[in-house]
Write a structure and sequence with these properties.
By secondary structure, the protein is α/β, with parallel strands linked by helices. The protein has three domains: 102 residues, 2-Layer Sandwich (Alpha-Beta Plaits); 86 residues, VC0802-like (2-Layer Sandwich), CATH 3.30.2130; 234 residues, HUPs (Rossmann fold, 3-Layer(aba) Sandwich), CATH 3.40.50.620. The strands form two sheets. Strands 1, 2, 3, 4, 5, 6, 7, 8 and 9 form a nine-stranded mixed β-sheet that branches. Strands 10, 11, 12, 13, 14, 15, 16 and 17 form an eight-stranded mixed β-sheet that branches. The longest helix has 19 residues.
């Protein structure tokens, strides 16, 4: 449901400024950067960022989320929940940086005391004071605030015998003051945010999720650019108990869904299809034919979920199937764009990101990966679309696609109240075929 907007301010009605809050509770100041480049579409992106903040903070006592000027203010209703609130804000895409601010009464003496409480415990040799005045009814200008607070802090620091001076261009510590319609806000420590664009601003895509490191990291990068992803995982049913890759795929989606709040995982049994390819296709082309079949099935699923593109975790030249010629031959069967956000990255970079986002340990778990099954002794490095199409002439491709579609189960995930909830997997509607899915 679209947010109601105030006609005068152009802001969602839910985030119009208020003038009162509990002075004892901290305020999280949230800044954005890239959204300033959006011109006439800025309101749309800011509304999505507000929605993401509100959804991420569900279940936490929040008095209000406001937007005075070029930042959001999250006013907590319970200071004891600050750490949990920060943990959730940390992964909201669209946030450039955030900070925990001290509220101060709207007069200069209280502001100076709050500034001292903020920077007094810190170790530094140079500092500066920066003020932003979004509320022009406050009696003092930004320059007057900076001058008065700076003198007060310098006197206090020298009074303690500290060798500290003001450095306006490159200070080690910056005491920042926000003059809002509510209390004055003071903070000195900025925390880097997740960056990127707010969730659900770039359209839907469908990601082939293998269970390994690469595809989960690729998904993260596309979600960071505002895409909403659903996932397709191909698995083998012949693994011993506890070795199936389904638990790994589910774990990866659980880790990624807090970034976009909802997701579907389509689980496709693939070993029957593989056996047919092994039986009737040239050995050296097996993996490429596996990949083409996966792409065909995924595209049908993607169209069913109104996706506009596909996402894979390919990195150029990382394995035999990821040479440029082979990728082009595989993509020849797709009519949708295929995005590969990791195409120019190496394994070290991919693993570093996997550790950062929490998918590394999940992908490190032992599981039965269907792709290496019946792996050829000498895989083709320079396949062509014509060569693969000729190999597929010996296969009942429509029948294999229909076999994969009929075996699909779907697991739905939702992130609410700070927890990921996963529904039990369900099948597609009885009798549903590849034609119906398309």
């Amino acid at each position: 449901m679209p947010l109601p907007y105030d006609r005068r301010s152009g802001l969602p009605a839910d985030i119009l400024p208020v003038t009162q809050t509990h002075m004892s509770n901290p305020v999280i100041v949230v800044h954005y950067h890239e959204l300033w480049l959006k011109g006439g579409n800025r309101r749309f992106f800011l509304g999505k960022l507000f929605t993401a903040l509100r959804q991420s903070l569900q279940g936490i006592s929040i008095e209000r989320i406001e937007q005075p000027g070029d930042r959001f203010l999250v006013r907590l209703g319970d200071a004891a929940l600050l750490d949990e609130a920060l943990r959730r804000v940390e992964r909201v895409f669209g946030v450039a940086y955030y900070a925990v601010a001290r509220p101060a009464e709207r007069e200069m003496e209280a502001l100076c005391r709050a500034a001292w409480d903020e920077i007094g415990p810190l170790a530094f040799a140079t500092f500066a004071v920066r003020a932003k005045r979004s509320d022009k009814t406050f009696a003092h200008s930004a320059m007057e605030i900076e001058s008065a607070v700076g003198r007060y802090l310098l006197q206090k620091l020298h009074g303690q015998g500290r060798d500290v001076r003001v450095h306006l261009k490159h200070p080690e510590v910056t005491c920042r003051i926000e003059v809002t319609p509510g209390p004055l806000l003071v903070y000195a420590q900025k925390i880097p945010g997740a960056g990127g664009l707010p969730p659900n601003t770039a359209g839907r895509m469908t990601c082939l999720l293998s269970g390994g490191f690469d595809s989960a990291v690729a998904a993260y990068h596309m979600i960071k650019r505002g895409s909403h992803l659903n996932f397709v995982h191909f698995y083998g049913t012949g693994a011993r108990p506890g070795e199936s890759s389904l638990h790994v795929a589910s774990g990866l989606v659980r880790t990624l869904v807090p970034y976009q709040f909802r997701a579907k995982l389509y689980r496709v049994p693939f070993d029957g299809i593989q056996r047919e390819i092994v039986r009737y296709a040239p050995e050296k082309l097996r993996v490429l034919l596996y990949r083409r079949m996966m792409l065909k099935i995924t595209e049908l699923i993607a169209r069913r979920s109104r996706s506009l593109a596909l996402v894979t975790g390919d990195s150029l030249g990382q394995v035999a199937s990821q040479t440029l010629r082979n990728l082009a031959a595989i993509d020849a069967v797709a009519t949708m764009p295929v995005f590969r956000p990791l195409i120019g990255t190496d394994k070290t970079e991919i693993l570093a990101t996997a550790r950062k986002i929490g998918t590394y340990d999940i992908s490190s778990e032992p599981f039965h990966d269907c792709c290496p099954v019946f792996l050829p002794r000498s895989p083709e490095l320079y396949g062509s679309a014509k060569q693969l199409a000729e190999a597929e002439n010996g296969l009942d491709v429509p029948g294999l696609i229909d076999q994969g579609i009929r075996g699909i189960t779907v697991q739905r995930f939702a992130y609410t109240d700070g927890q990921v909830h996963a529904a039990e997997p369900t099948g597609l509607r009885e009798g549903q075929s590849s034609t119906a899915v398309a």
